[in-house]
Amino acid sequence: MATLATSVTDRHAALTLSQERAASTSSGYLMLFVMLVAIVVAFFGTTQINYTPEIGVPLLLLGALVFAFVMPGFYMLQPNQAAAITLFGSYKGTDRTTGLRWIVPWYGKKKLSVRANNIISDKIKVNDLRGNPIEIAAQVVWRVTDTAQALFDVDDYKSFVMVQIEAAVRTIGSRYPYDDFEHQEVTLRGNHDQVGAELRQELIARLAMAGITVDECGFTHLAYAQEIAGAMLRRQQAQAVVAARQTLVEGAVGMVQMALEQLSAKNVVELDDERRAAMVSNLMVVLCGERDTQPIVNAGSLYQ
């Protein structure tokens, strides 16, 4: 993982990354009170124009100017919402304080959500480690951690996330085989937790430059492509049959060996090599047969 992070850092070495910092803003409730006072002053000045113009006109102008200055500076932030503050294109910080906020009107405000986002990617076709075409779709839970990087270091951070998810899924999908019946390799189908953790680390490394982290991810769809699905199904069935037969034969051999050893140890019956071979053959047929066997009772001697 350290190598992956280093390669990503080297890849973007020429890019100057932004860094979020706190913005200097004010509570909107205090400025709301100031605006209400300005309205009262302007209204009082209006009532005094006909009687004492030298007082009424200045009060009206003062109230109107204060109202016009204060009113455009209001904005509101909900929980898990932030606003990036800029001044003539220069980043001045990020406000994460919820509620009614106020800043000098000539400052720009760009709101963005820092809540968790859940995305299910489209199904994409990838060649696994053995070259077999497979279909993969992933579910990713991501959120913005650095608003400055998300807004100013990438053009559209949401589109950036979608592209990087597809690239990471292709990388992880081609790194492992789809399945390994002998369970000797890490596979996409058999090691969901391990592969999902590696996919998360791959995404975190890719999305770090956009100020985005990944909380959870995993595959929602994983299957062979349609053109080879039938052949792979038959292959899996054949491998399953062979493995089942192998286990059955190993168990049957152990049972036959145990039966012969106990018969000899307890002197139940003495068998020559020919009769021993016949007994082994009969026991193997009984234990390994796919259908129930029909016993035949020998009413004569063992050698008839």
TrEMBL record:
<keyword id="KW-0472">Membrane</keyword>
<keyword id="KW-1133">Transmembrane helix</keyword>
<feature type="transmembrane region" description="Helical">
    <location>
        <begin position="29"/>
        <end position="49"/>
    </location>
</feature>
<dbReference type="InterPro" id="IPR001107">
    <property type="entry name" value="Band_7"/>
</dbReference>
<feature type="transmembrane region" description="Helical">
    <location>
        <begin position="55"/>
        <end position="77"/>
    </location>
</feature>
<keyword id="KW-0812">Transmembrane</keyword>
<dbReference type="InterPro" id="IPR036013">
    <property type="entry name" value="Band_7/SPFH_dom_sf"/>
</dbReference>
<dbReference type="GO" id="GO:0016020">
    <property type="term" value="C:membrane"/>
</dbReference>
<dbReference type="Pfam" id="PF01145">
    <property type="entry name" value="Band_7"/>
</dbReference>
<feature type="domain" description="Band 7">
    <location>
        <begin position="72"/>
        <end position="240"/>
    </location>
</feature>
<protein>
    <submittedName>
        <fullName>SPFH domain-containing protein</fullName>
    </submittedName>
</protein>
